[in-house]
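Sample entry (125 residues):
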Amino acid sequence: MLIPAGDGLPSASQAAAANQGLDEVLGSLPETEVPSAALLDQLRGADPAEAIATLQTDDPAGFDLLCTVVAGAYFLNPEVRKAIGYPGQQAVPIVPEEPPDYEQDGLLASVIARGPIYRPTPMSS
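Predicted structure, serialized as tokens:
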């Protein structure tokens, strides 16, 4: 109900969000495990559309938790990430800019203009 199929993307159910995806989310966010389990126990057997509508009005925090966990599980699915063009987190090397961004706003100009100032330590003499 939260993430239906459309625009060439699978639904959350088709993307196995409730299976492997949920396990990955709970592994990454262990603090959500107990509240998520309690919420799902509370919703067990309820009509999904009615349960979501009730959560939205009566338990916004529970609704937010459900949306976070379901969306997280959904976007962990490799086919979903491929379909939206997101390769997942990747290490991207920092390429130095000329000048670096922290010098562009002028906040360090007075420090740079003054030059290095320090006291030699007794061992460095």
